[in-house]
Each structure stands twice: as structure tokens, then as C-alpha cells.
Design brief:
Length: 68
């Protein structure tokens, strides 16, 4: 949770800095960091799905978990 909060904070600061300075490089890095933040925030949900997949070694179940 701490990593998510720090990454989100840094992303917001980078967005503000990119808009304030009008630099596309900083804005594009902020968008990249936003993707990282989403990935970190979604990790607990994804880890639970992967835990289920690791416990059940059945291909149809694996496919249905990722399609649901």
C-alpha cells in the first residue's frame, strides 16, 4: 500500500510539473508512471487470481479465470 501511495504521489507531482513546464517528456513519463501505479494497485486482485491458478492445475479453469 505504501508503494502504491508513493507512486501515485510521484505521478501526480510529475503531471503537475509537466503541465506547469509544458514539457512533453515529463508528461509522457507521468503517463508511464500512471500505468505503473495502476499495475501496483491491481496487484492484490491479480495475485489472488494467480494464487487460485497455482492451486488448481486445470487448463479450462485457468482460461475461465482470466476471461472472467
Amino acid at each position: 500500500m505504501v508503494v502504491f501511495a508513493l507512486n501515485l504521489l510521484f505521478t501526480v507531482i510529475e503531471f503537475v510539473g509537466g503541465i506547469f513546464t509544458n514539457l512533453m517528456a515529463i508528461l509522457s513519463d507521468a503517463i508511464h508512471d500512471l500505468g505503473d501505479t495502476v499495475a501496483i494497485g491491481g496487484d492484490p486482485y491479480g495475485s489472488k487470481k494467480l494464487l487460485i491458478v497455482n492451486e488448481i492445475n486445470d487448463l479450462p479453469v485457468v482460461i475461465s479465470v482470466f476471461l472472467s
